[in-house]
């Protein structure tokens, strides 16, 4: 799947976001290595600590469907920002752990500005466990 197609899937997910407090709608779409697409949107709660970001929602949806760490190819994220959207630190950590440092990440805004990077580039020096359970250090 081309980057623009995955961004379009993330845009669809953004339309389902629940953000009554911030009105900041974010959508994400993750593609697995076998081509399946999972969507995610941000979901807010009056207790802000209970909110969930679009990136994590997409990855957790894939995990709930039976996919496991390392089975993800590309994650696209879109939001209404001046430049390509920037994931929060918690999402960056989840991307590393579930997707690996080589997970391709496509960041976009509603105006079509796009940045293609990797989970490892977004969180250099990250701590995570290798598939055998040993620390990456």
UniProtKB/TrEMBL annotation:
Catalytic activity: cytidine + H2O + H(+) = uridine + NH4(+); 2'-deoxycytidine + H2O + H(+) = 2'-deoxyuridine + NH4(+)
Binding site for Zn(2+): 53, 88, 91
PROSITE patterns on file: CYT_DCMP_DEAMINASES_1 (PS00903), CYT_DCMP_DEAMINASES_2 (PS51747)
InterPro entries, per database record: APOBEC/CMP_deaminase_Zn-bd, CMP_dCMP_dom, Cyt/Deoxycyt_deaminase, Cyt_deam_tetra, Cytidine_deaminase-like
GO cellular component, one term: cytosol
GO molecular function: cytidine deaminase activity; identical protein binding; zinc ion binding
Active site per the UniProt annotation: 55
Cofactor: Zn(2+)
CMP/dCMP-type deaminase domain: residues covered: 1-130
EC primary class: hydrolase
Sites where the protein binds substrate: 42-48
Annotated keywords: Hydrolase, Metal-binding, Zinc
EC number: 3.5.4.5
GO biological process: nucleobase-containing small molecule metabolic process; pyrimidine-containing compound metabolic process
Family affiliation: Belongs to the cytidine and deoxycytidylate deaminase family.
Function: This enzyme scavenges exogenous and endogenous cytidine and 2'-deoxycytidine for UMP synthesis.
Name assigned to this protein: Cytidine deaminase
Lineage, uppermost ranks: Bacteria, Pseudomonadati, Pseudomonadota, Betaproteobacteria, Burkholderiales
